[in-house]
């Protein structure tokens, strides 16, 4: 078991070495980068937006309902919603959602290409298949995912504001004061960094599993499932490590 | 010129290739024939570098494949065209895009030049009016022909075809055979074809190697195959009704 794990880690490192070779032509790389950005980032905007909007609203209700003590200022609801969103939801929870959406997309796409011989065909032409197929995905997911995190953060706050306006659970002015209270810009940097790291793990591990898929369509399904399970666990593990390193 | 010397390949206890020695002639259709499971595809994958042999050498010209570094292998692969069993056309590209794919990477031609060359290759394999279609919209025979067009896009010195007739009707199969043979002679390519199709062997087999249980048992050409005294080959050839009546 340990031997197999170490072998997988070694193979993953060798895979990354292939992925990060200099592209044959930068023009082709940028073209693929745009295509992958559309497939991985832009197509995720809707799901991230909807979830963030609702979670923001739910957080307001939950926080307000747990702060019935009259000694506590109601503006703390806005403050706590903001901190929850920026510290954990917009990076970790959104990354877990993306692990399902983005991860399965990457693993199944590359896995299907492997079993249908398209990757062999690229290798036989002398094209670095790992670089051509995976590098634009990894770069796009890693570099642009912090924008998704920012988007999620803003939508989450808006969702909370919407609930405040609709239900008047707390005064809207208190909510606005709360979300501005004791603002720490470093938390946004920390969250953006986490998101980039998580999306690097999602894209590279899913691509790795797809790239070495074997055993026909069952193998593709297996690689997709494996990718989601492994990246979900790694996201939680790295969340702990990064939080310890950056916030404590 | 491709030469193979004492090639061995095993998977665990299964010895798939045993002491394979081959010489493939330029400008000819060199065929590797044998029953399913005899090791043809493994041999082809070793020849094109998708697998590494356990021992033995493969020579391209005067160079050993095993001693080539990454850049040398990359340069060699640009001289190799491969037609895979399932065609392996790229799903994300149109027919024209598939043929232009290697040109995008390895030439500095303008877009117009690439389109012109791609259309020439598609014309050569008789694919017309399908430039903007995707592989999933093509028939099996069309996919094979586009696969050949892509394989010859960069004027290769070597063409490898893995079961080019599999899944095709006899008429289309014959067209593909003639196409491969014509291209081989026209461009003086060293073509290596993996097949168990009797019609192909008799039609275009300039040089034939019979692979049996991982070893080469017989060498010859399409004229001598029916008169062979190799009993394993006679059994293999005799499985075909028409050939059985001749031998």
Q: Catalogue the unreliable spans of chain B.
A: none
Largest sheet of chain B: 6 strands, mixed
Quickly give the CATH architecture of chain B: 3-Layer(aba) Sandwich
- State Rg of chain B: 18 Å
- Rounded mean pLDDT score of chain A: 94
Number of strands of chain B: 10
How many domains of chain B? The number is 1
CATH 4th-level superfamily of chain B: P-loop containing nucleotide triphosphate hydrolases
**Overall number of structural domains of chain A:** 1
SSE string of chain B, helix = H, strand = E?
EEEHEEHEHHHEHEHEEHH
**What average pLDDT do the residues of chain B reach?**
88
The percentage of residues in β strands of chain B lies in 15-25%
At the first level of CATH, the class of chain B is Alpha Beta
Q: If helices are DSSP runs of H or I spanning 4 or more residues, what is the number of helices of chain A?
A: 9
- Which two chains share the most extensive interface? A-B, 15 and 23 residues
Shape of chain B: globular
Uncertain runs of chain A = none
Q: Could you give the order of the helices and strands of chain A?
A: HHHHHHHHH
Remind me, CATH topology of chain B?
A: Rossmann fold
Distance between the termini of chain A: 34 Å
How is this structure best described in words?
The complex is a heterodimer of chains A (248) and B (247). The radius of gyration of chain A is 21 Å and the shape is elongated. In chain A, helix 4 runs parallel beside helix 8 (185-211), helix 4 runs antiparallel to helix 9 (216-247) and helix 8 (185-211) runs antiparallel to helix 9. The relative contact order of chain A is 0.17. With 248 residues, chain A is mostly helical. The two termini of chain A are 34 Å apart. Chain A has helices spanning 2-19, 26-41, 45-65, 75-115, 118-125, 129-167, 172-180, 185-211, 216-247. Chain A is built from nine helices and no strands. Chain A has one domain (2-247). The mean pLDDT of chain A is 94. With 247 residues, chain B is of the alpha/beta class. Chain B has helices at 40-47, 70-77, 95-106, 111-124, 140-151, 170-187, 198-204, 231-238, 241-246; strands at residues 2-11, 14-24, 29-33, 55-60, 63-64, 80-83, 158-162, 190-195, 207-212, 215-220. In chain B, strands 6-7-8-3-9-10 form a six-stranded mixed β-sheet, with helices on both faces. A four-stranded antiparallel β-sheet of chain B has the order 2-1-4-5, with helices on one face. In chain B, strand 9 and strand 10 form a beta hairpin. In chain B, helix 3 (95-106) packs parallel to helix 5. The two termini of chain B are 33 Å apart. Classes of the chains: A mainly alpha (248), B alpha/beta (247). The interface between A and B is medium-sized, with 15 and 23 residues.
């Amino acid at each position: 078991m340990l031997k197999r794990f170490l072998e997988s880690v070694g193979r993953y490192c060798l895979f990354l070495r292939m992925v990060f070779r200099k592209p044959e032509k930068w023009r082709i790389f940028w073209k693929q980068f745009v295509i992958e950005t559309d497939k991985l980032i832009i197509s995720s905007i809707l799901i991230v937006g909807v979830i963030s909007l609702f979670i923001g609203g739910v957080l307001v209700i939950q926080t307000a309902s747990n702060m019935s003590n009259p000694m506590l200022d109601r503006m703390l609801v806005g403050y706590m919603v903001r901190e929850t969103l920026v510290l954990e939801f917009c990076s970790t929870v959104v990354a877990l959602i993306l692990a399902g959406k983005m991860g399965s997309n990457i693993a199944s796409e590359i896995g299907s290409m492997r079993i249908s011989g398209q990757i062999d065909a690229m290798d036989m032409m002398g094209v670095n298949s790992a670089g051509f197929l995976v590098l634009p995905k990894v770069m796009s997911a890693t570099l642009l995912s912090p924008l998704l995190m920012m988007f999620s953060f803003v939508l989450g706050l808006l969702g909370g504001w919407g609930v405040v306006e609709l239900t008047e659970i707390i005064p809207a002015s208190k909510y606005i004061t709360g979300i501005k209270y004791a603002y720490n810009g470093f938390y946004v940097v920390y969250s953006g960094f986490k998101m980039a790291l998580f999306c690097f793990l999602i894209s590279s591990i899913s691509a790795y599993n797809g790239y070495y898929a074997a055993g026909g369509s069952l193998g593709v399904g297996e690689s997709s499932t494996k990718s989601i399970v492994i990246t979900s666990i790694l996201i939680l593990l790295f969340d702990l490590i990064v939080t310890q390193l950056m916030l404590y | 010129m491709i030469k193979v010397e004492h090639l061995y390949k095993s998977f665990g206890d299964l010895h798939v290739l045993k002491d394979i020695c081959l010489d493939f002639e330029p400008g000819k259709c060199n065929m590797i024939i044998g029953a399913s499971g005899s090791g043809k595809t493994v041999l082809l994958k070793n020849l094109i570098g998708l697998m590494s042999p356990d021992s033995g050498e493969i020579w391209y010209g005067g160079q050993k494949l095993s001693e080539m570094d990454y850049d040398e292998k990359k340069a060699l692969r640009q001289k190799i065209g491969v037609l895979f069993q399932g065609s392996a056309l790229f799903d994300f590209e149109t027919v024209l895009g598939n043929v232009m794919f290697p040109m995008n990477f390895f030439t500095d031609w303008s877009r117009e030049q690439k389109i012109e060359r791609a259309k020439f290759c598609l014309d050569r394999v008789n694919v017309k009016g399908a430039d903007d279609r995707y592989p999933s919209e093509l028939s099996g025979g069309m996919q094979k022909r586009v696969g050949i067009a892509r394989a010859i896009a960069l004027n290769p010195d070597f063409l490898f075809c893995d079961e080019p007739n599999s899944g095709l009707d006899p008429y289309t199969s014959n067209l593909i055979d003639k196409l491969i043979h014509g291209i081989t002679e026209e461009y003086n390519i060293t073509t290596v074809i993996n097949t168990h199709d009797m019609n192909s062997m008799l039609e275009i087999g300039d040089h034939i190697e019979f692979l049996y249980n991982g070893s080469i048992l017989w060498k010859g050409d399409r004229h001598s195959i029916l008169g062979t005294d190799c009993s394993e080959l006679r059994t293999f050839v005799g499985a075909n009704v028409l050939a059985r009546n001749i031998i």
